[in-house]
Amino acid sequence: MKVLYLRAPTGLDGAYPDFVKANDGRFPFEVYGPDEPMAEQFESVEVVIDPGGAVGTRALIDAALAANVKLWQVTTNGTDHVDVAYFLEQGLPLANSPGRLSAVPLAEHVIMLILCFAKDLNHNRAAGWQKAMGEELAGKKLGLIGFGASAREVARRAWPLGMRIMAIDVVAFPQAELDEFRVEFLGGPEQMDHVLGKADYLSLHVHLNETTRHMIDRRALDLMKSNAVLLNVARGELVDEEALVEALQQGGVRGAGLDVFEQEPLPADHPLLRLDNVILTPHSSGYTPDTPRRRMEAAVENVERIAKGLPPGDLVTTLVR
């Protein structure tokens, strides 16, 4: 049982020590050398670990196919930066890191953003004794677009603050689950307009695909309340940033808390950086010591499943996720 850990031309990623610790000598592994012959490095390899999913190229995938690799394991949840179509076309099993492994830090980040806007920390300063009127969250409506792991953790933390939870998802969850997370309203995608028009805070928790790209466009922003706040810790391209900037400048929405952007890093001249009704963080909402540890532990668990002849978990089986 041999594992190949991919290394980018720029060097090993920061989570490599977490993989070494999670593996703890259980399975032999080698680190891929970009400057060494490719095919030879894949000999006898059964699992490829692709940190972040950004290292894999079609040439590397072809080498894995030729070597009869049994699993290509990506260590992030999002797969919009992975050539999923090629994996599916060629029949090479692809697994990702389940969203539940980073759900807690993402949810905590969303709650932090909500509180920053509720207490208007952009303008509430002791320097110069500048007082800004805050608001109470009790009774405010929180709209969750997507009700997967991270959205559920947001709901779990928002309800004790007195917020009222609404959600949109393609899945119709049983009432017992909705009661657990105090969800007052759950609708399908066709009812998204209802949530857009009611939410005081709107938080995005969906994967990026052709259906969800720019789901928050001018039309969606026009439907939102003028005192609403948009929150995005999922994927930048879910939001039409040009339309959002316009809405923020013209008072169409009160503010935006963004951790992800259409272009990353955010260009130094981006208009979002010049607005005082936004809070921007550098795609860091899931950036805690525990997240890569959990992801690498899950990756090694999949290696163990392959070693035991079991099917791997968290397989990516479709382009629309």
From TrEMBL:
Ranges of residues in domain D-isomer specific 2-hydroxyacid dehydrogenase NAD-binding: 125-284
The entry's keywords: NAD, Oxidoreductase
Keyword Aminoacyl-tRNA synthetase appears in the UniProt entry: no
Domain D-isomer specific 2-hydroxyacid dehydrogenase catalytic: 35-316
Top-level lineage group: Bacteria
Molecular function terms from GO: NAD binding; oxidoreductase activity, acting on the CH-OH group of donors, NAD or NADP as acceptor
Family that this chain belongs to: Belongs to the D-isomer specific 2-hydroxyacid dehydrogenase family.
Name of this protein: Hydroxyacid dehydrogenase
Organism of this sequence: Caldilineaceae bacterium SB0664_bin_27
Phylogenetic placement of the source organism: Bacteria, Bacillati, Chloroflexota, Caldilineae, Caldilineales
